[in-house]
Amino acid sequence: MNLKFDLSLAEGYRSASQIARVLTEDWLAKNMYCPICGEMSIKRAEPNAPVKDYVCENCRSQYELKSRHNNTSRFQSDVNDGEYSTMISRITSLDNPSFFFLHYDQNEVNNLVIVPKCFFTPQVIKMRPPLEATSRRAGWQGCIINMKEIPATAKIPIIVDGVPRPVQDVTTQYKKVYNLHTDSIEKRGWLLDTLRLVERLDTDFSLSQIYMFVDELREKYPRNNHIQDKIRQQLQFLRDKGFIEFKGRGQYRRL
């Protein structure tokens, strides 16, 4: 995998954002494989496809790319995206894309992660204020991807500090993480919240410790009067999928 950009493609462009877009999109099309099926290349989607940049011709998986100039492996908390209603429509559909998040520095890629599509819910997408009436696109409303709402488990590394991981390791990890997939948006939301809370605790934790987040969850789900029941339900799901271990007497271990 060649991590350097083809700088010849930047000729004729003056805008830094346009140059970054051209270089990163070209790099991914030339160097990236499908993290889902392992196909050694992915193709660019048709022009102007909503919330879809690439497609795997083997398994038909769809991908969106978000890139940023950054010299650290820590991914930013907010990622700007396109039109809000379009994004919500796409991520709540049954054929929503997975997302690549790419960092680059010194004209080459230094970090790249893939987030499976099952980890996107409306709560991950924040609405931006509409453009003012004096702007060319008055009333247009963009959105922001709130990376803090996505569990660390879902951010599968492909390139770490300039070093690509083996393809087999990436596809194996993707399949394990995607095993948490559910078509229900409501179930996705509860799963994401529970998983993020588990990640905030020590490797070994107790049911009483995770119950300390009940008030936090109640703010998100004010109509639900059975928060503790939902927590136990999600912990059982994570246990059955091999992400946590139940040790007995209300004790758990994150695997």
Write the layout of secondary structure elements.
Elements lengths: L15 H16 L11 E2 L9 E2 L6 E8 L8 E6 H8 L6 E8 L2 E8 L9 E3 L14 E5 L9 E5 L2 E2 L2 H12 L6 H16 L3 E3 H4 L3 H7 L6 H14 L3 E5 L2 E4 L1
Parallel strand pairs: 3-5
Antiparallel strand pairs: 1-2, 2-3, 4-8, 5-6, 6-9, 7-8, 9-10, 11-13, 12-13
Helix pairs in contact: 4-7
Keywords:
seven-stranded mixed β-sheet, single chain, alpha+beta, globular, 255 residues, three-stranded antiparallel β-sheet, 13 strands
Please provide a written account of the structure.
The protein has helices at residues 16-31, 84-91, 167-178, 185-200, 207-210, 214-220, 227-240, and strands spanning 43-44, 54-55, 62-69, 78-83, 98-105, 108-115, 125-127, 142-146, 156-160, 163-164, 204-206, 244-248, 251-254. The protein has 255 residues and is α+β, with helices and mostly antiparallel strands. Helix 4 packs across helix 7. The chain is built from 7 helices and 13 strands. The strands form 3 sheets. Strands 1-2-3-5-6-9-10 form a 7-stranded mixed beta sheet. Helix content is 30%, strand content 24%. The two termini are 31 Å apart.
Tally of helical segments: 7
Termini separation comes to 31 Å
Beta-strand proportion:
15-25%
For the largest beta-sheet, the strand count, sense and barrel status come to: 7 strands, mixed
Structural class: alpha+beta
Provide mean pLDDT, rounded.
93
Q: Kindly state the percentage of residues in helix.
A: 25-40%
A few lines on this structure:
With 255 residues, this protein is α+β, with helices and mostly antiparallel strands. It has 7 helices and 13 strands.
